Amino acid sequence: MVRHPHLFVRPGSGSRRGFTLIELLVVIAIIAVLIGLLLPAVQKVREAAARMKCQNNLKQFTLACHNYHDANGRLPYGAQGHNMDDPNWAYYPVTTPQKLPRVPFIAYLMSYIEQTAVGSQWDFTINERQGINLVLQSGNKFPLFDCPSDTPATPNPAGGGNFPDYKSNYGLNWGSWNYRQQGGPTNGTFPLNYGDLKGRAPFFVQYGAKFTDIADGTSNTLCMSELLQSPYNQPPGQAQVDRRGRIFNDDSFCYQISTRLKPNDPKGDYGYCDPNDKQYPCDPLSSGLTSAAGLDAYMGARSRHTGGVNVSFCDGSVRFVRDSIDLATWVALSSIAAGDIPGDH
Q: In total, how many domains does the chain have?
């Protein structure tokens, strides 16, 4: 019997074929395309979750305002400490018995946002940065203060030992003009000419509105909104650090939001900020701002969300307001008794 070697094949001796370079490149390209399609979807889901978390935080703050109102018959003061009888609104001297100590609005709310340990210890007879009050805010991080879409500002920057507090992404509706004048000059251009009587917001210095004061309706009046936590920078020639987001500081340009600027307005805030920092829009006129100019400071509602900001209304609802909102509507929403009917927002 003659064997034919070429007809005999041992088991397992068949040839094995690997990927060619072209096939490998095709597979890599397909994977890259799939990743490219997946990433935007993941980012959208992540941003949606962050926006929802932001809205929940605002909801908690606004419900706290309601609970405070139930207990005290009015909303908490927007701030306390400036001597409004003084032409320059000077603070009462620290070295003398104080008629009105400095108090930021958040001090009134701590016991209503499940921070009773802080709220119960706050001493309303001394300034916000004295004694136990300074201890309570120094280095304490409160998750409710932060929107996940923004980067939290770090306290205690180099050379900034006087600023031990974390900032926040949430501030109060402060009308449509600046810190000491909420409604704008009556001889100004509409809609920034309400005057202080017509343009009063629910919060002001030594003022927290009663719900019965909100004649325009609580569902038509802003309560709180988002802002950006700027770093504790101090540009050359600037009298103060950039204090946008300082929820524990009653002074101007901290947590007082003006509808003078539309949401995420590229024009920039006017106050202690750096016009060269494009991540935190700042009006070029802010350069070299003095301490005396602080009462004229103002800042707008801002967020890292695409196309708008989260806001809460005095009825407790939370909504997303687009950057494209009409300025007249935005201004009307900031007043408690202007008599205007806001359009679709």
A: 1
